[in-house]
Amino acid sequence: MFEYKTVLQKAAEWSVPVAQIQSLCRQQKIEGAQKHGGIWFIPDQAINPFHESDNVFPFKGTKKKIFVKAVRLFAQKTFERVTIKEIAEAVGVAPSAVYNHFQSKQEILDTIYGFFEEYFTENRPAMEEIAPILGSEPIFDVLHCMDYGFKVSYEEILLLCIRIIFMRALFDERAGQLFRGVVLRESREYVREVYDRAIATGEYTRFDTDAMSEYHLMCRVYLLLHSLFEPSQENMERLNKNIYKMDAYVTRCLENMDVSAEAIDYEPTL
Description:
The chain is mainly α. The chain has helices spanning 7-14, 18-26, 61-77, 84-91, 95-99, 105-119, 127-130, 139-144, 152-168, 173-200, 209-229, 233-255, and strands at residues 4-6, 34-36, 39-43. It contains 12 helices and 3 strands; from the N terminus they run βααββαααααααααα. It has a 3-stranded antiparallel sheet with strand order 1-3-2. A hairpin with a 2-residue loop joins strand 2 (34-36) and strand 3. Helix 3 (61-77) crosses helix 9. The protein starts with a strand and ends in a 15-residue tail after the last helix.
């Protein structure tokens, strides 16, 4: 007989966002998962579906080692304070070996930016995946569909890439464009589209989707940045709990109000 854990407990155990596990449960890709009272329960002995082969990483061999070590050093010491010699020593190769794969330190940084841009939203559910639950599932589940989610093989590196970009955003034009465009603007538009589609089903209380998408993004970015500077299993569990509490509160608010943008519009007093 199976012993079960909640989706929140499994998220902390597997170090992945709740939304990713819920998505797999809905697709019946976690054997034995059951939903009771709006909460998914997963067999304690369920196989972790997020374990992946090292082969999925986009770089191989020495190039991957150089890239990973550079990301860690840039995140720890900043780009300006790290030398090619330091990167080579961290990898255990001669500086010339680094130049065999990257022409300069700037090229490594540009590769980091490209890696982030390609993989940051890769594991985010597509609209086609979310559409089936709109109108048929509680707004609470819809909220969780939009959480950040990275492949296990990329997670550590992507989080460090975000840290590098965040630290450079004010003075590096490319980093600023990525943070404003990918982390903020594009993510906000995605959330707002999900909310708009949810309201269009007629199954949810009306609310100001523009304001709610801003609120949703601010909370997620805060939690994301918090995890960057306190990366630990305990912090991941705490952040998941906080997301759950926040969404539960927002859900209660949305279920008891019928608010349009015009209803809460105001002129600020200066």
